[in-house]
Design a protein that fits this description.
This protein is α+β, with helices and mostly antiparallel strands. It contains 9 helices and 9 strands. β2 and β3 form a beta hairpin.
Length: 308
């Protein structure tokens, strides 16, 4: 180890003793009562020392006032170099700044919020052909556009360029507007893939609900199909009692609300009654002697039967 290195690690005596000078500089930069106890002395170099003081400011827990003092060679007076507030090892720091486009999560948008998309968004691609320049042999080529503008000049007052809204006939965007293709951009292949991965993760075959389902959504009557290329693997659940009602689900997803999972049997119809219990038959409490199929019995007949 060289002598210069040894000197640089050994604090200068005059600089190390200049604690009062460093405290006065810290209180001038902050406020009286905010600068706390002397914490540490750090050797920055040859005759350069930094004094660290505790910061008592609310919201700056663990921060320290750092006052650097220095002394010129062969000088007997210590001078002030700089004063700054620095975080300590256990300082309370703000989280790392992240752009809003990376902080946004599903469900964060509310009424009135606007979410602009970048011009080079990887999830989107031009809805027409990508370029607004027609092919040379196209019916909407530059020559055709000049002919159309020449015809418009004959039916309008003044040149077309002086009109409030100059017509854009002869361009691909104008033809697309006329055909009903009003979307300037559509989903790219990358946008389709990340949407499919997101839906598959939420309502796909690997979810616990699908693992315990009796059948998949592809055979369910409550599955509403969707158009486009995504319709080959996804649909919309229309079962109000299902956990994915109104959500885009994978065809391999399933739940207990499958339309053919458990068909409820019809209640059995009771057999017609053998005895008609719905008709009331009146019976007398004291029957008449001549009533019924057996006639009245004489009094002497009781003796013949052995009655006492």
């Amino acid at each position: 180890m060289s002598a210069a290195t040894t000197r640089s690690r050994t604090p200068d005596r005059l600089c190390a003793e200049a604690v009062d000078l460093a405290r006065a500089a810290a209180e001038e930069a902050a406020a009286p009562g905010v600068v706390g106890e002397h914490v540490e002395t750090v050797v920055e170099g040859d005759r350069v020392v930094t004094h660290l003081f505790e910061c008592k400011e609310f919201g700056y827990r663990g921060w320290r006032w750092a006052v650097t003092v220095a002394r010129a060679s062969r000088a007997k007076h210590v001078t002030l170099d700089e004063t700054v507030l620095l975080p300590g090892p256990d300082a309370l720091l703000a989280p790392e700044w992240v752009p809003w486009s990376e902080r946004l999560r599903p469900g964060d948008m509310g009424p009135g919020d606007l979410l602009p998309t970048e011009a080079d968004d990887l999830r989107l691609e031009p809805g027409y052909s990508g370029d607004d320049a027609p092919p040379p042999n196209s019916a909407v080529s530059e020559e055709m556009a000049e002919l159309v503008e020449a015809e418009d000049v004959e039916v309008t007052e003044g040149p077309v360029g002086d009109l409030p809204v100059a017509p854009t006939r002869g361009s691909i965007s104008a033809v697309a507007e006329e055909l009903g293709m009003r979307r300037a951009r559509v989903l790219s292949r990358y946008g389709l893939h990340i949407a499919a991965d997101r839906w598959e993760e939420a309502f796909g075959a690997k979810t616990p609900m699908a693992q315990a389902a009796p059948a998949t959504c592809v055979s369910c009557a409550f599955l509403a199909p969707i158009g486009g290329s995504l319709g080959q693997a996804f649909g919309v659940c229309a079962n109000e009692f299902a956990p994915a009602d109104g959500r885009v689900v994978s065809l391999s997803y399933g739940c207990g609300g499958h339309s053919e999972a458990a068909v409820m049997p019809k209640p059995p119809r009771p057999a017609p009654p053998v005895i008609d219990e719905t008709i009331v038959e009146p019976l007398p409490l004291h029957p008449q002697p001549d009533a019924g199929s057996v006639g009245a019995v004489a009094d002497g007949s009781a003796d013949d039967l052995g009655h006492s």
